[in-house]
Amino acid sequence: MGKHGLDGQDGQDGRDPLIQRHGGYRKLKSFQLAQLIYDVTVRFCDRYVAKCSRTHDQMVQAARSGVQNIAEGSMASGTTKKFETEGGFTERLYRKRKRRRDGK
């Protein structure tokens, strides 16, 4: 696996790798805002909501999920380019069935 992607191309030959490096989500304003919301939510819950209550747990978990979803979405976006160049699942399945039917 190349250092830039899953396709074995590391971009050293002057071509862009098929799957670009991702993970720069920490610079996104949405990620920074989600982190701020998480921090404020934890402080609010610790101060105003009973720590042993289900409400406390749900609010903190929801705020944590917002941060995690942005991070995971950023990492997953790296596969989008490869997926788009090869076509979607249905398109690939159609081509595979067509090859079988045609005997190729």
Structure in words:
This protein has 104 residues and is mainly alpha-helical. It has one domain. It is 62% helix and 0% strand. Helix 1 (29-48) packs antiparallel against helix 2 (54-76). The protein is elongated and about 70 Å long. The two termini are 29 Å apart.
Structural class based on helices, strands and sheet pairing: mainly alpha
What ranges have pLDDT less than 50 throughout 5 or more consecutive residues?
1-11
Number of strands: 0
SSE string, helices as H and strands as E: HHHH
Fraction of residues in helix: 55-70%
How many H/I helical runs? 4
DSSP strand (E) fraction? under 5%
Secondary-structure blueprint:
Blueprint: H1 29-48, H2 54-76, H3 80-86, H4 89-102
Helix pairs in contact: 1-2
Which features does this protein show?
104 residues, mainly alpha, disordered N terminus
Outline of this structure?
The chain is mostly helical. The protein contains four helices and no strands. The chain is 62% helix and 0% strand.
